[in-house]
Amino acid sequence: MELALLESMESIGLSQPNPAVGCVLVQNRQLIAKGSTRAWKQEHAERVAFSRLDPGADLHHATAYLTLEPCTHQGFQPPCVDLLLKSPIPKIVIAVADPDPRVDGEGIRLLRAAGKEVVVGVLGPEAYAWNLNFFSTKKTGRPLWAAKWAQTPTGHLCDASGHSKWITGAESRAYTHWLRQKYDAIVVGARTFLADQPRLTVRDCAGPLNRNPERFVFDPKGRTLDLPEAAREGFRILVCEPELQARGQGTPAGVIPVPVEKDSSELWTVFQDALQGSEFPRPLQSVLVEGGPGLLRELFKHDFFTVVHRFTGIRNFTALSEAHRMEWVGGGPWILETEEEIQGDLLHEWRKED
Ligand SMILES: NC(=O)c1ccc[n+]([C@@H]2O[C@H](COP(=O)([O-])OP(=O)(O)OC[C@H]3O[C@@H](n4cnc5c(N)ncnc54)[C@H](OP(=O)(O)O)[C@@H]3O)[C@@H](O)[C@H]2O)c1
After folding, report:
1. Alpha-carbon gap, residue 295 to 290, rounded angstroms
2. CA of 218 to the centre of ligand 1 (A)
3. Which atom belonging to ligand 1 lies closest to the Cα atom of 223?
4. Is the bond leading into 143 cis (omega within 30 degrees of zero)?
């Protein structure tokens, strides 16, 4: 199952909105085929693994390891369970059941009814955590929002003049680039956009490099509109509609007018609706917010987040401002899922308790 989970990682950023699933086929303790979910609308993991089997492979004593229950419905692909039912494979090991109402235990029931031995729950928590975007969306019907930041040992995200490069080392930044592939959209605040001109790409990603997320800037007052248009290229800027109207310049390319006053108590909810209502190449399942502290604080206050990725570097700044120290309030209770050292930096990852 560990191998199946590793195989599923090949599909991060590729399979969404389908979960990244791995399938491993083993016979006489030998790996005979493996596969992971292809791009949305294309083959699921089981079909990929079966297509890689030797034509004469005898599966009468084989075991299939799946990181997710096989699907039972006809979608863009035929049901995966049919493949297993037609094959002589006697044993199927599944990490976690599929909460999709079109499956919901039916894959397991059909396999057992056909006389196959089915084991469920092997590395289940890991399989759940690795596909949290999928499971959370199925459960809540809404995209999952995650927070990510890098802080100094004192909790500051930049120095008093707004410099933050670099709090963490190259390995931590490469991990962040890998992480970005997991998310459909990525958001920063207007001040971060102006201070850092971030690219928010996956350029240093270590591992399969499948996609850059859609990039957004939360900019209630329209601060970034004074930049040349080329500086905003590739980003969608969410600006309060009254602020845009006050400028009298219409709606510049790449700007999304948000129908709310900048000091309204509804500001963040309306911004969230505007982002979630935007056009995406695939159905929106997850959003990663990469700061700065002002935006993160507001979104924590309004209970946006289900996941937190926090890096703590070893570097301290000399000139500090309290406005740039991250106070983490709201949400929870939180489950600590990762505590890991990456080249001297500390990575902590939390998930909100279901
Ligand atoms: N270490 C890290 O991981 C990291 C990550 C990102 C950024 N940074 C650093 O963070 C600094 C910028 O952070 P920041 O906190 O100044 O800004 P920010 O988080 O980038 O932007 C905050 C945005 O939210 C708006 N906003 C905040 N509170 C609001 C409220 N109560 N009502 C309405 N709008 C509100 C601000 O509006 P207005 O400003 O228009 O009023 C601004 O558009 C940069 O220097 C950057 O280098 C560090």
Report:
1. 9
2. 9
3. 40
4. no
What's the 261 CA to ligand 1 centre distance in angstroms?
18
* Ligand 1 neighbour 164 (Cβ under 6 A): yes
Residues known to be catalytic: 46
Q: Write the burial class of residue 101 (CB in 10 Å: 0-12 exposed, 13-18 middle, 19+ buried).
A: exposed
Tell me how far apart the alpha carbons of residues 128 and 118 are, in angstroms, rounded to a whole number. 18
Q: Please tell me the distance from the alpha carbon of residue 153 to that of residue 156, in angstroms, as a whole number.
A: 8
Expressed in angstroms and rounded, the spacing between residue 248 Cα and the centre of ligand 1 is 25
Domains of the chain (ranges; CATH) run 2-130 (3.40.140.10), 142-352 (3.40.430.10)
Tokens of 322: 């309290």
Q: Quick one: the chain helix, strand, coil %, rounded to 5?
A: 30, 25, 45
Q: Find the helix or strand (DSSP H, E) in which 170 lies.
A: helix 170-180
Nearest in space to 185 (alpha carbons), one of 209, 205, 210, 213 = 213
pLDDT tens by residue, the chain, 354 residues: 999 999 999 999 999 999 999 999 999 999 999 999 999 999 999 999 999 999 989 999 999 999 999 999 999 999 999 999 999 999 999 999 999 999 999 999 999 999 999 999 999 999 999 999 999 999 999 999 999 999 999 999 999 988 888 899 999 999 999 999 999 999 999 999 999 999 999 988 867 778 899 999 999 999 999 999 999 999 999 999 999 999 998 999 999 999 999 999 999 999 999 999 999 999 999 999 999 999 999 999 999 999 999 999 998 888 888 889 987 766 779 999 999 999 999 999 999 987
Instruction: Say if ligand 1 is within 6 A of residue 313 CB.
Output: no
Which single residue is written with the structure tokens 């990510």? Answer: 148
Q: Which residues pair with 119 in a beta bridge?
A: 93
Angle at 49 between CA 176 and CA 87, to 5 degrees: 145
